[in-house]
Write a structure and sequence with these properties.
Layout: E1 35-39, E2 42-47, H1 50-71, H2 79-84, H3 95-110, H4 127-144, E3 150-154, E4 157-161, E5 171-176, E6 179-188, E7 195-199, H5 201-204, E8 223-230, H6 233-246, H7 251-258, E9 261-266, E10 271-273, E11 295-297
Antiparallel strand pairs: 1-2, 2-3, 3-4, 4-7, 5-6, 5-11, 7-8, 8-9, 9-10
Helix pairs in contact: 1-4, 4-6
Length: 298
């Protein structure tokens, strides 16, 4: 099925709560308001049972705040800013920063340079791994606290655990890049697809740099939005960024090498996917309220 954004319902969300016509189960974790907070230049939305949100949201905020204070390039005195501007040699930076840099360099190698922690001017930018690492640490914390049914949405990068309601997996919508209030498709989570990330200038800003040619020497067809579903959020985030930079020529290679599902939209509105069954038309889904920044919960 080729999805046409023009046929999608107009209801949708963009970083706020939405009211849907249908009434989901009282056990559905999307029925109540999400806990939201600002960090790392974006919004984090945390969904779980009400008492879990109240009890643990402060701890989650501290995890994200730590990453923001150390790695933000918008904070001139952050450790990464001091490294990027030459005030602090990388070799004298903290072990945590050097480990994050090593992680980014490793991903640059395995993606053949499509993912790159250095911008065209040679400056260091670790945003491509930092946000996913913060989400991952927040998820690990929730598991350590014995909480297994929840979702974290940080600027369109989503990590889910357990179920949305008893026996029902999380259902996530993909926003239309041309109209952030509309959905073009929906994705159902599964045990090996609990993390989903979206990449595009509307989601990421302008920190993605583009190779002029692919490994074949020819310019690749560009995409305006890439959504990747994977077993972990770091893989989903990095591969979405790599495909957005590499264009359509990188689709099949990335899907096969990293065992991920990919859904793209190009400048002409054409959709492509690498899954056996394409994402579902959201008009057929039973919806509940959700939040969106690339992906939205139905």
């Amino acid at each position: 099925m080729v999805l046409d954004p023009r046929t999608m319902p107009s209801q949708g969300t963009c970083g706020r709560e939405a009211d849907w016509a249908s009434s989901p189960s009282e056990d559905d974790l999307t029925t109540g308001p999400a806990t939201t907070f600002q960090t790392m230049g974006t919004i984090v939305s945390f969904r779980a049972s009400p008492h879990v949100q109240v009890a643990l949201s402060g701890d989650l905020q501290r995890i994200f705040r730590h990453h923001d204070e150390r790695f933000s390039l918008y904070k001139p005195d952050s450790e990464l800013s001091r490294v990027a501007t030459g005030r602090l040699p990388l070799s004298r930076s903290s072990l945590e920063l050097r480990d994050m840099y090593a992680l980014a360099v490793e991903w640059r190698s395995v993606t053949d340079g499509l993912f790159d922690p250095q911008n065209p001017d040679g400056g260091l930018d670790l945003n491509g791994v930092v946000k996913a690492h913060a989400i991952e640490q927040a998820g690990e914390f929730l598991w350590q606290e014995g909480e297994h049914d929840w979702s974290l949405n940080c600027g369109g990068d989503i990590l889910c655990s357990g179920t949305q309601s008893p026996g029902a997996p999380w259902l996530i919508g993909i926003s239309d890049p041309a109209d952030r209030s509309a959905m073009v498709a929906s994705v159902t989570t599964s045990p090996d697809r609990m993390a989903i990330a979206t990449s595009g200038v509307s989601e990421r800003g302008h920190h993605i740099w583009f190779p002029t040619t692919t490994t074949t020497g020819k310019k690749s067809r560009s995409v305006v939005q890439v959504s990747v579903a994977a077993a972990d959020i770091l893989t989903a985030d990095v591969i979405a960024t790599a495909i957005y930079a590499g264009g359509t020529d990188s689709l099949q290679d990335m899907a096969e090498r990293f065992k991920v599902d990919i859904f793209t939209i190009d400048a002409d509105g054409q959709t492509r996917w690498t899954v056996e069954r394409p994402p579902a038309d959201p008009s057929s889904a039973s919806r509940g309220p959700g939040t969106s920044a690339g992906f939205a919960f139905f």
